[in-house]
Design brief:
This protein has helices spanning 20-38, 53-67, 80-89, 122-132, 153-166, 185-195, 222-230, 258-271, 288-296, 308-318, 341-355, 359-363, 381-386, 388-401, 427-443; strands spanning 5-6, 9-13, 43-48, 71-77, 94-98, 107-114, 149-151, 175-179, 199-203, 235-239, 246-249, 255-256, 279-283, 300-304, 322-324, 330-332, 371-377, 406-411, 417-423. It is of the alpha/beta class. It folds into 3 domains: 5-153, Alpha-D-Glucose-1,6-Bisphosphate, subunit A, domain 3 (Alpha-D-Glucose-1,6-Bisphosphate, Chain A, domain 3, 3-Layer(aba) Sandwich); 167-363, Alpha-D-Glucose-1,6-Bisphosphate, Chain A, domain 3 (3-Layer(aba) Sandwich); 371-443, TATA-Binding Protein, CATH 3.30.310.50. A 7-stranded mixed β-sheet has the order 1-2-6-5-3-4-7, sandwiched between helices. The protein has a 5-stranded mixed β-sheet with strand order 9-8-10-11-12, with helices on both faces. It has a 3-stranded antiparallel β-sheet with strand order 17-19-18. Helix 1 packs parallel to helix 2, helix 3 crosses helix 5 and helix 8 (258-271) crosses helix 11 (341-355). The mean pLDDT is 95.
Length: 449
């Protein structure tokens, strides 16, 4: 990770850690960089979520891009995966999504994808950072070389058409609940499900710029659980602010996590001879219960660092077809280059209809181990992580857990946070070992008061 860009873009509180000026400069660099490298006027597509500051950053990016001679194509409010899709299908040099994903409204972020719709490579991001720190001078475009902005809502509509076209079954008479998190999916998801014939019931689809992710969406799925049960729905899907992740609720109101989804669709692929290499890509945060369920049906797996970026890199390198995170970032490499919440929903619906089974039955083989995850804000993530006393506390916990559990301590890729996670035979044991490690972090003075 660089100084500004983490595993999921440049993220921070709007006009504090991530400012209007940063966005102008990023646009300036990208417009110049692609124009110079390709010796032509650069084309960049931009999407945004519903948070208030997204409009400010959209205008700032357009200002920077056009000042450097690039043309900026604006998709308006749309999802991260739609920007990725359009970048790779419509001959763009790169794509930009303005979103802080599941973070509160006052945060925002700038995510950049290349012409293949993949997260931008580290070398290019480091060059952007060098420019942000004043290490590069970039000329202004003049006269007819100045870029223009283009309304590109048509790109969002084509993405909707793409998703509709992927469905193999009619959803007629299926009652589907959607929690749009007052975010990017607020119009798109219902349009897709309605077109395929579902009876679609939507909550949290009234964005006002301040309510994105607020007590709703995949980070507050309890509201969808209640909604599904009260309205006797067949299934429910909850998205985050930019709709690149999806969690599910079965007809009984139980949460179906990203780990469940990997199992359900991975097994479906294996049964049809579609699971290339007989492997699923997970992260180190996946639950023991997933691995035991996969072992039982003879499916192999690989583990990466946390972040859909690392999952996708592993998939591309090794030719795997499905991977993802417990949080609901699921990648189907045949159809997308990033996590796509709505696509994930459609794939789960496909399994339900193909097997003629309710979601609760499909998810039942994955029995979760109790897990406790706590986040602590620290002054320096490397200092806290590498402190010898902290490492000793982690090793002590790992030894005590043995083969009946595990402990994981890692740095957040987007926040000044250390995450401490323990899986064990009971919640009490999980709490004990998590708190033991956090107490050492506190005692060594690493916490932010």
């Amino acid at each position: 990770m660089g100084k500004y860009f983490g595993t999921d873009g440049f993220r921070g509180e709007a006009n504090k850690e991530l400012t209007f000026e940063h966005a102008v400069q990023i646009g300036r660099f990208l417009g110049w960089y692609y124009g110079k490298r390709l010796n032509k006027k650069a084309k960049v597509v931009i999407g945004k979520d519903t948070r208030r500051s997204s409009y400010m950053f959209e205008y700032a990016l357009c200002t920077g891009l056009t000042a450097s001679g690039a043309d900026a194509y604006i998709m308006h409010v749309t999802t991260t995966p739609s920007v990725s899709y359009i970048a790779r299908t419509d001959d763009f040099d790169c794509g930009i999504m303005i979103s802080a994903s599941h973070n509160p409204y006052y945060d925002n972020g700038i995510k950049i994808v290349n012409s293949n719709g993949e997260k931008m490579d580290e070398e290019t991001l480091l060059r952007i950072e060098e420019y942000l720190d004043g290490g590069v001078e970039i000329p202004m475009a003049e006269r007819d070389e100045i870029g223009c902005t283009v309304d590109y809502a048509a790109g969002r509509n084509r993405y909707i058409g793409y998703l509709i076209g992927l469905s193999k079954y009619s959803f007629k008479n299926i009652k589907v609940g959607i929690d749009a998190a007052n975010g990017s999916a607020w119009q798109i998801a219902k349009s897709v499900f309605d077109a395929i014939g579902a009876k679609t019931y939507v909550i949290n689809a009234e964005p006002d710029g301040l309510n994105i992710n607020r007590d709703c969406g995949s980070t507050h799925i309890e509201h969808l659980q209640k909604f599904v049960v009260e309205n006797d729905l067949n299934v429910g899907f909850a998205y985050d602010g930019d709709a690149d992740r999806c969690l599910c609720v079965d007809e009984k109101g139980n949460v179906v996590t990203g780990d469940h989804i990997l199992y359900i669709y991975g097994l479906y692929m294996k049964e049809r001879g579609k699971l290339l290499n007989n492997k699923i890509v997970t992260t180190v945060m996946s639950n023991f219960g997933l691995y035991k369920a996969l072992d039982a049906v003879g499916i192999e797996y690989e583990k990466t660092k946390v972040g859909d970026k690392y999952v996708y890199e592993n998939m591309v390198k090794n030719g795997h077809r499905i991977g993802g995170e417990q949080s609901g970032h699921i990648i189907f490499s045949k159809y997308a280059t990033t996590g796509d919440g709505i696509l994930t929903s459609l794939k789960l619906m496909e399994v339900m209809l193909a097997k003629k089974k309710p979601m609760s039955e499909l998810a039942a083989p994955v029995k979760f181990y109790p897990q406790v995850l706590k986040n602590v804000k620290v002054k320096s993530k490397p200092d806290a992580q590498n402190d010898p006393d902290v490492q000793a506390a982690v090793q002590t916990a790992a030894k005590a857990l043995g083969n009946d559990g595990r402990i994981l301590v890692r740095e957040s890729g987007t926040e000044p946070v250390i995450r401490v996670m323990v899986e064990a035979g009971s919640d009490k044991l999980c709490e004990k070992y998590v708190d033991d490690v956090i107490e050492v972090i506190r005692g060594k003075g690493h916490l932010i008061d």
